Amino acid sequence: MIPQFTIDEVILRALKEDIGCCDISSAALFSPEQRGEAILLAKGSGVFCGGGVFARVFTLLEQSALVTLRKDDGERFESGEILAKIEAPVTVLLQGERTALNILQHLSGIAGMTADIVQRVEGTGARISDTRKTLPGLRALQKYAVTCGGGRNHRFNLSDGVMLKNNHIDACGSISKAVEILRARIGHMVKLEVEARDLEELRQALEAGADIIMLDNMSVEETRRAVELTRADARNAGVLLEASGDVTAENVREVALTGVDIISLGALTHSVKAANISFRIVRPPTQQ
User: Fold this and answer.
1) Among the listed ranges 141-145, 173-177, 242-246, which one has the minimum average pLDDT value?
2) Taking residues 163-181, what's their average pLDDT?
3) How confident is the model over 170-191, as a mean pLDDT?
4) Angle, in degrees to the nearest 10, between helices 90-120 and 139-148
5) Is 133 in the active site?
6) What Å distances lie between residue 196 and 140, 199, 200, CA to CA?
7) What angle do CA 132, 168, 146 make, to 5 degrees?
8) Strands (E), the chain
9) What's the confidence (pLDDT) of residue 161?
10) Distance from CA of residue 181 to its chain's centroid?
């Protein structure tokens, strides 16, 4: 669903950064007519993501480049599997290698980590979501990777929905005042989320009529109590509760078992480990 021009902008910016004015090493060793073949080799297990972006790196450098992907985005892979084959001028293989691999490893890392977290909360009813804690310029791709791992997307940007965070509330004076002002100004299709730091702020958010309430950095016990207080009143039946802050792979199931609807983790995009994937030239360049 990401527009091709958005993907191309990311790739071209990365290629400009990595290649500079020219690839001195490759240009000195090979002619543009010499073609070769490379493979994408998994050196660990994970979830594949970013195949289309990977392929586009090489076709932007050279239209005749041929990339054959052996995995679809969201599909699991194991160590030793060949994930793709690339046939192109050897100078193109060498120029595109780092950019293509950086993006693929990063997106696959996000998809793999998300899939692990989603599996840990299986059966609880809680949905796993990302945040806006993304790398500049890569948000669309990172959020796409989260969905490939089975997660959901939070806001893409500040215009995507209304969210009152602690600084909004503190600057405005109170939750009730901030919600009152917003309700008078936003459209009927815009959802309103309020961040609550404790049970008193939760009560204020409920009374103000928030659609979604983020339970920010609450302990597991506080989160459980917040769910109980919310569900005890039938008027709050449609209110979604989101847990966020200090959630890890180790405690995410415990948080999910409190009964929250959503668990958002910034770590899915800002602290992910790149997937272990290698790029290897397997056929020497032909002489032409």
Assistant:
1) 173-177
2) 91
3) 90
4) 60
5) yes
6) 28, 7, 8
7) 15
8) 35-42, 46-47, 66-69, 76-77, 82-89, 127-129, 162-164, 192-196, 212-216, 240-244, 262-264, 277-283
9) 86
10) 32
Q: Decide if pLDDT at 280 tops 80.
A: yes
Structure letter (DSSP) for residue 152: B
9 is a catalytic site residue:
no
- Chain CA centroid to CA 73, Å: 13
From the CB of residue 71, how many other CB atoms can be counted at a distance below 10 Å? 19
Residue 91's pLDDT band, with cuts at 50, 70 and 90, is very high
Amino acid letter at 236? N
SS3 of residue 124 by DSSP: coil
Q: State the catalytic residue, choosing from 132, 133, 224, 225.
A: 133
Q: Is 160 an active-site residue?
A: no
Residue 15 has pLDDT above 80, yes or no: yes
139: which 2 tokens? Answer: 């948000």
Is 165 annotated as catalytic?
Answer: yes
Rounded-to-integer distance, Cα 93 and Cα 270, Å: 29
The three-state secondary structure class of 88 is: strand
State the burial class of residue 279 (Cβ atoms within 10 Å of its Cβ: 0-12, 13-18, 19+): buried
pLDDT tier at 1, thresholds 50, 70, 90: confident
pTM of the predicted structure, to 2 decimals: 0.94
157-168 pLDDT per residue, tens = 998 889 999 899
Measured at the CA of 207, the angle between CA 206 and CA 213, to 5 degrees, comes to: 20
98 included as an active-site residue: yes
Task: Give the length of the chain.
Answer: 288
Q: Which of 13, 16, 76, 165 is catalytic?
A: 165
Catalytic pick from 18, 62, 85, 98?
A: 98
Cβ count near 188 (within 10 Å): 4
End-to-end CA distance of the chain: 40
pLDDT band with cut points at 50, 70 and 90 for residue 283: confident
